[in-house]
Amino acid sequence: MIGLATVELLDILGNENRRRILQLLSFRPFYFNEMAKRLDLGPKAVINHLDMLERAGLIECYHDDRRRKYFRISENFILEVALAPHTYGVRTYRPACALDESPSPKVQEEVSTKSKGSCNGSQLRDLRSKFMDLENRRFHLRRLLDEIEYEEMTIKRQAIDLIEECAEDLLEEEVLIALTPGPSRSKNLANRLRMPEAVVVETLNRLASRNTVQKKGYEWTI
Question: Is there a single domain that holds both residue 56 and residue 108?
Fold first, then answer.
């Protein structure tokens, strides 16, 4: 799994040319000169972008039998950004059903040269139908996610109203909002709220004295 911080990853993907490179590599591996020509970019710029993407672990390189250096996307992962009132989160994760690693250059060459021109149109149409079915399922999944997000926002608004009644100041409000999704250690709360941990602990202790929060082990919870 990519060990890069999600903030750094967003910075890397914020560049249009690096996104173009990744989009190109999503089709197949490319060697350097072929990529530079396709993207209409100077060699130095392409080298810099490839170097950054490779150091980030997003792409990797290998050499074919003629010692040409190819680049390909290194692994499967998903980047999610959630942004809404009282919600901000960025995370990357590898799908549980991630595809196997890309085949070796030798296997790729065998696949690309086998039975040239013998494609069966009906087989392609069958695969197209499967793609369309997946797209329909993805559409229904998005609708379900929309419903979940709407319900989540409704619950959060209700929680905010209650928090405003329970909290005696803005610090307590922020701490309670941060604890609403689930238990957390004071250090993690401080990092999320960009506050000194001592201030967070003091606020938690005030809330605990009124039985609004409690500490279980190393974590605080509502």
Answer: yes
The C-alpha atoms of residue 220 and residue 89 are separated, in whole angstroms, by 20
- Identify whether residues 140 and 181 lie together within a single domain: no
* Residue type for position 115: S
- 11 contact partners, CB below 8 Å, separation of at least 6: none
Distance between CA atoms of 75 and 2, rounded to whole angstroms?
Answer: 8
Per-residue pLDDT band at 99 (split at 50, 70, 90): very low
Residue 1 in any domain: the answer is no
The percent of residues in the chain predicted with pLDDT above 90, rounded, is 36
User: Is residue 120 helix, strand or coil?
Assistant: coil
Phi-psi region of 85 (alpha: psi -120 to 50; beta: other; left: phi over 0): beta
What digits encode the pLDDT tens for the residues 43-75? 999 999 999 999 888 899 999 888 889 999 987
Nearest to 212 by CA among 168, 156, 161, 152: 168
Q: Are 105 and 64 in contact (CB under 8 A)?
A: yes
The DSSP result for 134-147, as a single string, is HHHHHHHHHHHHHH
